[in-house]
């Protein structure tokens, strides 16, 4: 299974050179005055451990385990993933601009794999977003945050103000959708991370709650 996982990562990056993404555009929205200078993703802001059942589907290969995310400073989280049997697969510390690898299983110790996890978790755990433009549709307030050639569209539910989706784009091409199901601002009950330019999906399901 580990060999299949690594092969899937390799194949996915090769396919990136051949698969183009559609230009991302908001539909059926109206512009709003910018009332917010910044918006936040608070789902990983608590000092308690966030423990999830993790499922990865990578080109028809299914991998599962336990994922633990812990805030260790105002800017840094520690991420540990184990197999279903409790064997550690990877352990790293991550912030917007920093990454420290504490441990990785030898079979996974490949630059492609590490960069994949680093980039996805930096975006998942990103907290603050400067607001460039604001919009709304029938169900959501939407904030666009532009950083260099990257853009983030953050969708907040109008009824409860909870963040329900983040769309990451690069060069106006949709790259990753993060979808959240939550009952409170500091903890997402489930998270669905879907790549748009190659066939990788990560799903996280709550195991322990946090106050």
Task: Give a verbal description of the structure.
- The protein has 211 residues and is mainly β.
- It has helices spanning 2-16, 111-124, and strands at 30-32, 38-40, 50-58, 61-71, 77-83, 88-94, 99-104, 128-130, 133-136, 140-147, 150-157, 163-170, 173-184, 187-195, 200-208.
- A 13-stranded antiparallel β-sheet has the order 1-9-10-11-12-13-14-15-3-4-5-6-7. A two-stranded antiparallel sheet has the order 2-8.
- It is globular and about 50 Å long.
- The termini are far apart.
Secondary structure layout plus pairing:
Layout: H1 2-16, E1 30-32, E2 38-40, E3 50-58, E4 61-71, E5 77-83, E6 88-94, E7 99-104, H2 111-124, E8 128-130, E9 133-136, E10 140-147, E11 150-157, E12 163-170, E13 173-184, E14 187-195, E15 200-208
Antiparallel strand pairs: 1-9, 2-8, 3-4, 3-15, 4-5, 5-6, 6-7, 9-10, 10-11, 11-12, 12-13, 13-14, 14-15
Question: What features would you highlight for this structure?
Answer:
211 residues; 51% strand
